[in-house]
Specification:
InterPro entries: HupE_UreJ (IPR007038). By secondary structure, the chain is mostly helical. It has eight helices and no strands. The longest helix is centred in the C-terminal third of the chain and has 25 residues.
Length: 184
Amino acid sequence: MNRLISAGLAGVLSMALALPAAAHTGHAGDAMFVQGLLHPLTGIDHLLAMVAVGVWAAQNGGRALWLLPAAFIAMLSAGAGIGMAGIELPAVEAGIAASVAVLGLLVLVNKRVPATAAALLVGAFAVLHGHAHGTEMPQTADPILYGLGFVLSTAILHGTGIALGLVRHIPRRRFATRALQRPE
């Protein structure tokens, strides 16, 4: 199963690398829903952190399965609002880099944490990711459409991570048995 997870992450990474790497350079022209949708996919840091939230939610299971993505999206939206309002936060880029490292490590070691504590951690990181999205929104963009785009994209990335995390829990024998059964 580790090969399957690695293959899934490699696929997500290759999709991200195929897009222009513009997550932290701003976007030209009218940026509406589609630009907001693409924004999290065009920065490897955003992509990895958001998929990691989903994988970690699946690893923790139970309430964390929905609480971590919900906390991330809520705080991402709050952070975006702060960024769109022009309010500066210290060390946003360093915090985003730390989110990739910390969340990646938590996934790697399969660290289980109480759901509320895990939600607080991902929420803190989400504020920083949201701030970056908000400050990088082009001036000509409609904030609502742009925001809806990156929130939807984030939810899809969380869902991808959850799927990757849950695939690990399928017993190999049961999967192989079902695949080899003849239809009646």
